[in-house]
Write a structure and sequence with these properties.
Layout lengths: L10 H4 L6 E5 L2 E5 L1 H7 L8 H5 L2 H7 L5 E6 L7 E8 L5 E7 L1 H35 L2 H4 L2 H33 L8 E3 H10 L7 E5 L5 E3 L2 H18 L6 E7 L5 E6 L22 H6 L6 H11 L3 E7 L3 E8 L3
Parallel strand pairs: 7-9
Antiparallel strand pairs: 1-2, 1-5, 3-4, 4-5, 6-8, 9-10, 10-12, 11-12
């Protein structure tokens, strides 16, 4: 029961809201709906609002006679963002509603960061292309065949880098647009793996090992091919020069299909592991750009695996190589 028995009957409506709501009288909380009780604790009913919230900005709003609203941070958890509305009712009580903006703010920040990073990644090769084109316009540079060919090679390399980035950005966009649609096509992952290994162009380095005759999953064949190709490409780029890359396919104890791509490269320092699937994150930015990495490959892999209701994991130790593993539920 509420601490104050003079609670308006209209509180039944507040209890239907899916956001926290408080009813105040004389700066005291006379009613808190279920989401508010979950947020502040059941003891808040009957408490002075200054003791219940303990947030200076929120308290100033709620103890002021004016109807107003405010945004505050850290009300529920560190870094959380809340919009608080406070309005007087005809019976002299004050209605307080709280809207959690944390997810919305986080998405907006991630979008802004993504746009900024994509712009930066495109601007760098574009500047090189424009710079060398401008130089080639100079008759002295254009008339020197050796210089002209060298500059054209650089322009082609930077243009290819931009093309790869645009293709990955478009791929990521398509994947995110369908992330809530679970694929239903019947796909043999063993067949997909064989095709990807054959297309790697390095049969002496990339080998396939499988202990199953087939590995049927519900999936999108094109996207599953993209996962394995991306992982093989990464292993070839970052593995030790001329060292083998193994693609393993097996069934786990639970019946899930396990695809692992293993290289014998330098490995990845532990501090980078938690962020490897973030967009544009690189453990070694200089080396990644030098070999043509866009910084989106592992992010694409993660999103595709999640769309297939699977799991993606990376294990690595410095000096001992890296193993990237995808697990998919069977068909």
């Amino acid at each position: 029961m509420p601490a104050n028995s003079n609670v308006p009957a209209s509180t039944e409506i507040l209890d239907l809201l899916d956001i926290p709501a408080l009813l105040l009288r004389n700066d005291r909380i006379i009613h808190a709906n279920p989401p508010a009780l979950g947020m502040f604790g059941r003891h808040v009913e009957g408490q002075d609002v200054r003791m219940a919230l303990r947030h200076p900005d929120a308290v100033r709003l709620l103890t002021s006679p004016r109807n107003d609203s405010i945004r505050v941070t850290g009300l529920s958890t560190p870094g959380s963002l809340w919009h608080i509305d406070c309005n007087s009712l005809e019976d002299g009580t004050r209605l307080v509603t709280l809207t959690d903006l944390s997810v919305q703010e986080s998405v907006a920040r991630a979008h802004a960061d993504f746009v900024a990073n994509a712009s930066h990644e495109l601007r760098t090769p574009l500047a090189a292309v424009l710079g060398y084109v401008e130089t080639l316009k100079d008759p002295k540079a254009g008339d020197n065949e050796t210089t002209r060919l060298r500059f054209l090679d650089i322009i082609a390399k930077e243009a290819n880098r931009m093309q790869a980035l645009v293709e990955d950005l478009m791929s990521l966009s398509r994947i995110e647009a369908t992330k809530h649609q679970q694929p239903t096509e019947k796909v043999d992952l063993l067949s997909v793996a064989k095709q990807c290994v054959g297309e790697s162009g390095q049969p002496d380095r990339v080998t396939l090992h499988s202990d199953v005759a087939d590995a049927i999953v519900a999936g999108d064949r094109g996207q599953l091919s993209q996962v394995i190709r991306n992982l093989i490409d990464n292993a070839l780029k970052y593995g030790g020069a001329e060292t083998p890359v193994s693609v393993k396919l097996e069934k786990g104890a639970s019946g899930w299909i396990v695809v692992s791509v293993i290289d014998q490269g330098e490995g990845i320092p532990a501090q980078h592991m938690p962020r490897l699937t973030e967009r544009f994150y690189r453990a070694d930015p200089g080396r990644s750009r030098q070999i043509g990495g866009t910084g989106l490959g592992l992010s694409i892999v993660k999103h595709i695996v999640e769309r297939h209701r699977g799991r993606f994991d990376i294990a690595s130790r410095v000096g001992q190589g890296t193993t990237a593993t995808c697990l998919f539920p069977p068909y």
